[in-house]
Design a protein that fits this description.
Chain A is of the alpha/beta class. Chain A contains eleven helices and 18 strands. The first copy, chain A, has two domains: 192 residues, Medium-chain alcohol dehydrogenases, catalytic domain (Quinone Oxidoreductase, Chain A, domain 1), CATH 3.90.180.10; 132 residues, Rossmann fold. In chain A, strands 3, 4, 5, 8, 9, 17 and 18 form a seven-stranded mixed β-sheet that branches. In chain A, strands 12-11-10-13-14-16 form a six-stranded parallel β-sheet, covered by helices on one side. A two-stranded antiparallel sheet of chain A has the order 1-2. In chain A, 54% of the residues are buried. Strand 16 of chain A pairs antiparallel with strand 16 of chain B.
Chain lengths: 350, 350
Amino acid sequence: MYKAKAYSAASATSPLASDTIARRAPTEHDVQIEILFCGICHSDLHSVRDEWGGTVYPIVPGHEIVGRVTQVGSAVTKYKPGDLAAIGCMVDSDHTCPRCKAGFEQFCQNVIYTYNSPDKYKTAPVTYGGYSDSIVADERFVLRVPDNLELAGVAPLLCAGITTYSPLRHWGVTEGKKVGVVGLGGLGHMGVKFAHAFRAHVVVFTTSPEKTEDALRLGADEVVVSRNADEMQRHAGSFDFILDTVSAKHDINAYLNLLCPDGNITLVGAPEKPLDVAAFSLIMGRRSLSGSNIGGIPETQEMLDFCGKHNITADVEVISIQKVNEAYERLLKSDVKYRFVIDMASFKSQ
Amino acid sequence: MYKAKAYSAASATSPLASDTIARRAPTEHDVQIEILFCGICHSDLHSVRDEWGGTVYPIVPGHEIVGRVTQVGSAVTKYKPGDLAAIGCMVDSDHTCPRCKAGFEQFCQNVIYTYNSPDKYKTAPVTYGGYSDSIVADERFVLRVPDNLELAGVAPLLCAGITTYSPLRHWGVTEGKKVGVVGLGGLGHMGVKFAHAFRAHVVVFTTSPEKTEDALRLGADEVVVSRNADEMQRHAGSFDFILDTVSAKHDINAYLNLLCPDGNITLVGAPEKPLDVAAFSLIMGRRSLSGSNIGGIPETQEMLDFCGKHNITADVEVISIQKVNEAYERLLKSDVKYRFVIDMASFKSQ
């Protein structure tokens, strides 16, 4: 065991504060990583404030981790000290179930999330995430990072990136498809970048007309102000796929009606209140409404490699770890373009 | 033009009553059919009472039509007088759009339904359905009927049959899959028969424990009383596919939570009120909620051929046309096992 610097919250009402945590010494299959950047995901805020229930305190959030390998266990073959490496939302699974074997570790019933999951090594009651200067994980959950990308912008790929990449791939978004992205935040801006890179015709739906210019810059072909019923009606029955990134309750039928036959809407935002779904909106045209959550390790690696090839990173605002509570308040107001990323070098100035 | 006997409703509050309607003389591509049996679908009742809006009166409902060819146009190649033949929910489409060309006439924007659609031949303001002793339709919308099946039980295959067959096929129900059927009425009992014939493990969900015996007789492997939360919980995360035939509002999340990763629920009943869908139920496990409505002509023929091969028909209660209003009242109370079918021979006793 060794000590690492971290920011943790002591209760649902406590701010995040400087702390020292225990990390296990790397076992033979482990990779130790010096964390350089960690993205701030809205899930971090929900977990810190126990808004989904089940948070064990202290909590060290963070699952958009990128850094450099500092040490590897004797059986590790894929990494060596000095390599760039990343960790996303999962750090372990049972490796034996059909889902793991198929590369869908996110569906494994024994998946270990990067933070707030039982720690099988008993280093701590639960796993501690990436708001820290160091982390240790099984090499099977460590990802290679292309060396041509700006590292701060890579961090959000590990959650916001794979969460949008995976459903776009799963639902067959390619050239010639008409694709909508609802909401232009941390998830939405990645959805636009990927759908554009897949050569789809990309339409951004937003309630904020002032986002038009930025949407076009990110790769949208069109922007529709969703409050304008006439504008919406012009697109009725025409979309192959819509990625819905909105986490507040909204009128999903307005979007279902924009789908062509066999079209799909996938929710990646998670509104707390149920959505009202009109059965007829689904029945006519055999439409479907789905959800999606991150992706498996093989697909996460595929996504990172794709980003390297196409020079895709998240648009980020880099902050020091000392500013994390302030960032949370701004996140609640959607006041960020488009993802906060903590620069862990700031630990050294403590 | 010629005159046919029919039962029509004169207004949303009128009972169905004996009438005489005009049918066109068969054109060169047309097939004239003596209707022997016509099933009663819940849509008929909704349309007669204008519960979905848009009904043009008088209305002659009926889209589960089976009979015998009496005359064919000069260009007709697939049928000759004396052949068994059937007509379902559609009698025409534009034949030129990509959806028609792909065999998905049900998605054609110019589809002509069997009743209450504009009549392009101007024989009447709208098309008239199967509560009649005769009908004329383009041979491309006429279906072949296997000659080994009991004809009264064939009629409901044209709507209840294809409506359940199509989504089971679309979502890949085969041997080794665990399939749920929610509700055991006209649609549900066909869903059970098909899922069983596809060699899936079939679980019927019902609120009525007294339906257990019948469900098992129809082909179910298990019956779950959906009000029993413990019984439901035992099946959590285990279903590949669930066919939901319930047309009243119900708790769809209880069923979404029974799906395994990538599992799908397809709605074929159409609750009037929106369903409350919890986004998390979809997001965890990449589940999806879809709808489906009938099927294309090629798939409807495939379904009839499958029924011939596997000796599948609907379980029906045969009534005279004079009893149709009484049947509607019983339908509202779900007092039928499992589909009413009108025997058109009863026209002759008028």
